[in-house]
């Protein structure tokens, strides 16, 4: 069974700006990693811990994981887990389309997405995005928290409109989350990830393919708030089998995409949960793993 991971990152997507994507011989280090028991539980544990100390430990582990996420390590994990394609989602100003395009030139299993530079004025931003599309960008990534921009901002609407009119999908981070601890002073607005922003935004773009990442994690609320929007999808990032099954039941088997948010989620355990969720529906499993994403990306094979 072929698998497309619609939601991955390579390199340092955070504000440390370490240029590690093309480094070689980076070995995964030994550090306290709360992601491991979360994965091994089948994503059945609470993701964000309550105590400040445990939250800081999780934040630190996320940073360590991206510092180990070289193209070399990523490609090895793809091979071991038989991933056919991985969609690379850049997050400006930390990782760029150009960086991910270069990765795709070296290994055709990687599919590069673009990300808008919201520091530019709209005409310059649009010109850059058109150039990215001409060079091979297959979709647009919007991360309101890490990019410090609300979906109510006109620049977001302009970027989405440009990709939508070209028939290319747009994937949004959805969900309130904290990426930096008290020991850093990087700008962030966790509230920009509030799902309500997406629920208010999506109805204005009914002709475009919109992917709300992470929302299979709350399938009932997502289905209710996107009722009638057949152009809206979500992914399976950090979801256990029960949530995936419910998401497919409520949204339909055509609107759920396999995703891991690699390197924060793992291929191995994420694949297991989809297989458990859809064991009695092989057609839906094939759609979630491959065909839904292939249709959005216009893959020919």
UniProtKB/TrEMBL annotation:
Signal sequence coordinates: none
Domain Amidohydrolase-related: 4-299
GO cellular component: cytoplasm
Pfam families for the chain: Amidohydro_2
Entry-linked InterPro entries: ACMSD, Amidohydro-rel, Metal_Hydrolase
Record bears the keyword Lyase: yes
The keyword Lyase is assigned to this record: yes
Record key words, sorted: Lyase
GO molecular function, one term: hydrolase activity
GO biological process, alphabetically ordered: secondary metabolic process
Name of the protein in question: Amidohydrolase-related domain-containing protein
Organism of this sequence: Enterococcus pallens ATCC BAA-351
């Amino acid at each position: 069974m072929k698998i497309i991971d619609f939601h991955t990152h390579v390199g340092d997507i955070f504000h440390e700006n370490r240029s590690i994507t093309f480094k070689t011989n980076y070995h995964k280090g030994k550090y306290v990693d709360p992601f491991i028991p979360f994965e091994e539980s089948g994503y059945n544990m609470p993701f964000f811990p309550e105590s400040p100390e445990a939250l800081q430990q999780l934040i630190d582990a996320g940073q360590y994981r991206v510092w180990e996420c070289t193209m070399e390590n990523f490609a090895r994990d793809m091979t071991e887990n038989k991933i056919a394609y991985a969609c690379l989602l850049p997050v400006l100003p930390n990782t760029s389309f150009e960086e991910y395009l270069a990765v795709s030139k070296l290994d055709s299993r990687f599919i590069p997405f673009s990300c808008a530079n919201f520091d530019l004025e709209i005409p310059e931003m649009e010109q850059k995005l058109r150039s990215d599309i001409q060079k091979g960008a297959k979709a647009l990534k919007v991360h309101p928290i890490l990019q410090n921009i609300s979906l109510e901002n006109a620049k977001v609407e302009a970027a989405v409109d440009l990709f939508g009119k070209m028939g290319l999908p747009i994937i949004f981070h959805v969900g309130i989350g904290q990426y930096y601890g008290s020991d850093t002073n990087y700008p962030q607005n966790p509230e920009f990830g509030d799902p309500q922003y997406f629920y208010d935004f999506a109805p204005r773009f009914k002709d475009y393919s919109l992917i709300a990442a992470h929302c299979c994690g709350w399938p009932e609320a997502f289905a209710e708030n996107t009722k009638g929007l057949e152009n809206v999808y979500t992914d399976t990032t950090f979801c256990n089998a029960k949530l995936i099954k419910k998401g497919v039941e409520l949204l339909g088997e055509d609107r759920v995409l396999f995703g891991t948010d690699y390197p924060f989620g793992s291929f191995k355990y994420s694949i297991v949960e989809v297989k458990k969720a859809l064991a009695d529906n092989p057609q839906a499993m094939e759609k979630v793993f491959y065909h839904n994403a292939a249709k959005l990306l216009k893959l020919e094979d």
